[in-house]
Amino acid sequence: IIRDTLNSTVKDGIDHVTLNFSGGTKALQTQRSIESKLLKLGRTLLGAPAQKKLVIFVDDVNMPAVEKYGAQPPVELLRQLCDLKGFWDRETMGLWKNIIRTVLVSAAAPPGGGRANMTPRFTRHFN
Predict the structure, then answer these.
(1) At what angle do helices 73-84 and 27-36 cross, to 10 degrees?
(2) Predicted TM-score of the model (pTM)
(3) 4 pLDDT band (50/70/90 cuts)?
């Protein structure tokens, strides 16, 4: 249902990227998938083209494996995007990338069967 809705909004100035999380999803591949749909608007500024928004839809957001410290790195990257409106460059040490004109939408099933509980630090960004 969500994918059909997103596909129908392309003509309305809304582009989208769909990320399907699994137990093996890594933060690096999540960041690269998001960056691949963004334009470089400045040295440290990325975003959707002018007059457009990018919807980042994450399916099964609670699927990535929990590390020994209790975090899910791909989910923490998304939380950082919501909290700080950007993330660190993986190639240039100390370079922060600001992200504009994006919206995060996610879907998750109840915990269990490989799905983890979502942290309040992340879920506070959703209704």
Answers:
(1) 50
(2) 0.91
(3) confident
Q: Give the tokens for residue 62.
A: 């609670």
- In the structure encoding, which two tokens stand for residue 21, read together? 């999380």
Contact 54, 17 (CB under 8 A): yes
Helix, strand and coil percent figures for the chain, each rounded to 5: 30, 30, 45
User: What mean pLDDT is predicted for residues 27-54?
Assistant: 95
Phi then psi for residue 97, to 5 deg, are -105, 115
- Spatial CA neighbour of 26 closest among 76, 86, 82: 76
Alpha helices in the chain (DSSP H): 2-8, 27-36, 73-84, 120-123
* Tens digits of residue pLDDT in 81-92: 999 999 999 999
CB-based contacts of 77: which residues, under 8 Å, 6+ apart? 27, 30, 31, 87
Angle at 82 between CA 78 and CA 85, to 5 degrees: 105
Q: Could you identify the residue written with the tokens 């957001």?
A: 61
